[in-house]
UniProtKB/TrEMBL annotation:
Subcellular location: Cytoplasm; Nucleus
InterPro entries membership: DUF4464
GO CC term, one of those recorded: nucleus
Function: May be involved in spermatogenesis.
Name of the featured protein: Cilia- and flagella-associated protein 299
PANTHER family per UniProt: CILIA- AND FLAGELLA-ASSOCIATED PROTEIN 299
Keywords: Cytoplasm, Nucleus
Length: 88
């Protein structure tokens, strides 16, 4: 997977989940919880890449991309407001 595809995959993950913990939880199965009996341990195993049903994403990457998307969204909104003011 090249860098652009990786960023698109990360963007999809980041926009799909509100928090990193929500993302981790999505990777945990009921069987995992049955055998581990500890949600925190299950999250740690997913975070380390030992368990999970999908893409491995580091907390720092998730939070950085989440912030970048939010900044982009706010900048776009500000640009739209500025453009509408210029038209007046």
């Amino acid at each position: 997977m090249d860098q652009e595809e990786g960023l698109k995959a990360l963007d999809n993950i980041v926009t799909q989940f509100n928090t990193y913990e929500d993302f981790l939880d999505s990777q945990i199965t009921t069987v995992d919880l049955y055998y581990l009996e500890d949600e925190t341990l299950a999250r740690q195993l997913v975070e380390l890449g030992y368990r999970g049903t999908g893409e491995r994403v580091k907390r720092e990457d998730f939070e950085a991309r989440k912030a970048a998307i939010e900044i982009s969204r706010l900048a776009e909104r500000a640009q739209q407001k500025f453009s509408s003011l210029l038209q007046l």
